[in-house]
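Service request form, structural biology core

Requester: graduate student, group of Dr. S.
Request type: structure prediction, single chain
Budget code: on file
Notes: please return the result as structure tokens.

Sequence provided:
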Amino acid sequence: MQDVILVSIHTRFKKIKLQMKRADGRSLNEPRSVTIEPNFMPYAEGSALIAVGDTQVICTATVDERVPRWIRGSGRGWVTAEYAMLPRSTVERVDRRRSTSGGRSQEIQRLIGRSLRSVTDLDALGERSIVVDCDVLRADGGTRTASITGAYVALELAIKKIHRANRIQAWPLLDRVSAVSVGILDGECVLDLPYEEDSRAEVDMNVVLSGDGRIVEVQATAEGSPFTSAQMNAMLELAQLGCQTMNAAQKVALEQRAA
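Core staff response, request fulfilled:
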């Protein structure tokens, strides 16, 4: 009987925690609003403007009939990315040269490229490259995860264009991919952190998932005390919820383009 009472108390406490509000009024398991505007850059083969809360990123996909030297003659294609923050995307000016060549930018663009390649059949793409540029217009936390989510939309639009033109025969995309941030703030697991929360979180974690919920990549760091496997599992569950929202926004954007 005592065990039943304890379980009941734990369940009620868990519900109370989820009802707690953050600075922006969201509950702990609630993502920020997400909108994706397809074909934002009309000259690109594929593009999208993604807004996750106050974070805004332009994602532009360019098809190049060349591939890197190390895969020439293989018949395989390549998908890669570049990432940069515009000079006043943050409170203080970001130096343009530092934004494009710094270690953080290189690490993020490699993450975006890996994420896109994880759902792309490079053999079906043929011997060509698709480069997705992610340029942050406004940064309020989660720029890398927003970039991945928007970059996928730009990539699919570009592939649809060359597929309709019969430049490729087989459809090369195996699934969608999206990403979201999670973390531990004031001892609680929270979903989709804006800068105000991210800057003081005890744990910062970025999760990249395929459309069917499989893990592509997890980046997790304890800014203070180490965290437990139970906390990590709780954050992964939140990330699954968050990526469902991202997937829904991707679907709306791509259906909007199809219409």
